[in-house]
């Protein structure tokens, strides 16, 4: 049997706010295979980010364990790269230096680092901006830098926490297409958090619907395995969202999420 | 310099930068001073000497010594005290602030002591300073150092403490260990607050300088100010005050220029 890339075993996570403890994630079990693109979608405040931080090793669960390749995750590691919604670039470093950041700690020699950094800056289509500082870039470009920074660091798993959440709709669509392309070019295991149903179905091999807090998994849909929308990684965003299969699936998912929002009154 | 620099664009730029406006306010101030002393004679010269008398005093004391040295000598002595005091204070405050912000245990140990010492006005240390370090350079340096130390320490501490946690998480998930995070993230991220702290500290240090020189000194600008009072020569006091003001302005300008250089990456907002 193939070993899970990531395995979350009955994980519960709490967080503290104003001295009170809230249960953010409630007894969640999930296994993710190598090379899979898993999207977790749910209403805001449902604990998706907390769950992802647990996978990253930035937050410790109060119950259950998380494993990567069968080894228990105890803290953050370069093997699980994170793309944050707020970009989290180092403002005093240039685009080049930002992308290079992790490579220094991998002991890669300078010449080789330069090659790798150039490659990934090219991949995110930011050639010519190597010497720019983050404050000189637009939001979409900043997130491209952050994506290049994580890709260049060769993590086995990419964790993306609403990476396009802070971008305008047009930029977002283009970023989604480019990410889908990158995923085909360089197969990595991806866990992607979003509250956009469209984004979830467009990108995810598997889409997981989370309930409102405390977050549990409400439903898991195998978009790729069940051939719900075949061949979509070769299609543009507009072509995919106009497919009947896409609209049907979107209707179903949105129904589930809406029910969650209405039921728990988290408007 | 090219001819173009003196063209209408140059004048326009000066006007835009409000240099003209600022300059006229200074000249206007001096003119009003001139008006109420010399022209209208509203205030006797014993209370407020006229501007030309003050300017003449400044000019005269460049050549004729007051006490042990000429005006430049007094400025030099004050400058030396400020520089030594500030340097020592920064060398202690910045590393301590970084360590306190980084190691929570050290924070818990040091904070109560600092919170008690910090509200004590630096000039309250003058008697002890003289007792410990005599009336020479040592006591002045100590007083100035106290003035510079606390604002710099507090700002450095805050700068380290309030680095955006997302930046630290980003570094950690890219493989940075604690020492890398400190060097590559915490330090650069806290520079803006550290520089702001130095700016406040040096301002306070200037005040401490004068206070220290008023009490026990036979040289320096504070001494001039005091001597002017003792000898009923207000123009001498005003000379000292003007020079202190200019020194403070220059120090502030210098720090701002350094800030612009080291915080090149900060967004305008």
Give a summary of the structure in a few sentences.
Chain A is an alpha/beta fold and 267 residues long.
Question: How would you summarize the topology of this molecule?
Answer:
The complex is a heterodimer of chains A (267) and B (269).
Chain A: E1 6-17, E2 20-32, E3 37-41, H1 48-56, E4 63-68, E5 71-72, E6 80-83, H2 95-104, H3 110-123, H4 139-152, E7 157-161, H5 169-185, E8 189-194, H6 197-203, E9 206-210, E10 217-222, H7 237-241, H8 244-264
Parallel strand pairs in A: 3-8, 3-9, 6-7, 7-8
Antiparallel strand pairs in A: 1-2, 1-4, 4-5, 9-10
Chain B: H1 8-16, H2 19-39, H3 51-63, H4 71-102, H5 104-117, H6 126-133, H7 137-161, H8 165-173, H9 178-215, H10 221-230, H11 234-262
Please state the structural category of chain A. Answer: alpha/beta
Protein chains sharing the most extensive interface = A-B, 29 and 21 residues
Task: Indicate the radius of gyration of chain B in whole angstroms.
Answer: 23 Å
Radius of gyration of chain A: 18 Å
Q: Give the termini separation of chain B.
A: 34 Å
**Poorly predicted segments of chain B:** none
Number of helices of chain B: 11
How much helical structure, as a percent, in the residues of chain A? 25-40%
Shape of chain B: flat
């Amino acid at each position: 049997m193939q070993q899970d890339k990531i395995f979350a075993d009955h994980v519960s996570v709490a967080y503290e706010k104003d001295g009170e403890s809230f249960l953010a994630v409630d007894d969640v079990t999930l296994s993710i295979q190598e090379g899979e693109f898993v999207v977790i979608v749910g209403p805001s405040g449902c604990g998706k980010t907390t769950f992802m931080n647990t996978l990253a090793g930035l937050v410790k669960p109060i119950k259950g364990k998380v494993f990567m390749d069968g080894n228990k995750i105890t803290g953050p590691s370069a093997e699980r790269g994170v793309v944050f919604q707020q970009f989290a670039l180092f403002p005093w470093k240039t685009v080049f230096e930002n992308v290079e950041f992790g490579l220094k700690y991998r002991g890669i020699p300078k010449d080789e680092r330069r090659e790798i950094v150039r490659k990934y800056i090219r991949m995110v289509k930011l050639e010519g901006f190597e010497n720019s500082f983050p404050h000189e870039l637009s939001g979409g470009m900043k997130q491209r830098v952050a994506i290049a920074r994580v890709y260049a660091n060769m993590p086995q798993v990419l964790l993306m926490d609403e990476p396009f959440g802070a971008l305008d709709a047009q930029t977002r669509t283009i970023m989604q297409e480019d990410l889908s392309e990158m995923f085909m070019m360089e197969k990595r295991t991806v866990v992607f958090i979003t509250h956009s149903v469209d984004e979830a179905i467009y990108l995810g091999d598997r889409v997981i619907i989370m309930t409102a807090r405390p977050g549990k998994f409400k439903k898991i849909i195998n978009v790729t395995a069940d051939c719900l929308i075949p061949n979509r990684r070769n299609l543009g965003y507009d072509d995919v969202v106009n497919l009947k299969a896409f609209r049907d699936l979107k209707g179903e998912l949105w129904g589930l999420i809406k029910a969650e929002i209405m039921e728990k009154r988290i408007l | 310099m090219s001819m173009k620099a003196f063209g209408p664009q140059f004048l326009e730029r000066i006007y835009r930068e409000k240099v003209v406006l600022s300059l006229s306010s200074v000249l206007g101030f001096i003119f009003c001073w001139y008006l109420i002393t010399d022209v209208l004679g509203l205030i006797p010269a014993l209370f407020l000497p006229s501007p030309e008398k003050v300017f003449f005093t400044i000019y005269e004391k460049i050549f004729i010594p007051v006490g042990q040295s000429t005006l430049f000598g007094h400025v030099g002595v004050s400058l030396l005290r400020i520089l030594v005091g500030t340097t020592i204070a920064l060398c202690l405050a910045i590393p301590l602030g970084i360590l306190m912000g980084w190691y929570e245990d050290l924070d818990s140990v040091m904070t109560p002591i600092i919170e008690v010492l910090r509200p004590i006005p630096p000039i309250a240390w003058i008697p002890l300073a003289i007792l410990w370090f005599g009336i020479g350079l040592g006591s002045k340096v100590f007083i100035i150092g106290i003035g510079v130390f606390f604002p710099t320490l507090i700002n450095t501490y805050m700068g380290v403490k309030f680095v955006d946690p997302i930046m630290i998480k980003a570094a950690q998930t890219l493989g940075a260990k604690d020492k890398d995070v400190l060097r590559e993230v915490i330090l650069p991220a806290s520079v803006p607050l550290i520089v702001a702290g130095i700016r406040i500290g040096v301002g306070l240090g200037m005040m401490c300088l004068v206070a220290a020189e008023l009490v026990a000194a036979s040289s320096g600008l504070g001494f001039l100010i005091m001597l002017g009072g003792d000898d009923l020569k207000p123009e001498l006091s005003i000379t000292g005050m003007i020079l202190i003001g200019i020194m403070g302005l220059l120090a502030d300008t210098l720090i701002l220029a350094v800030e612009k250089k080291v915080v090149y990456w900060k967004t305008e907002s």
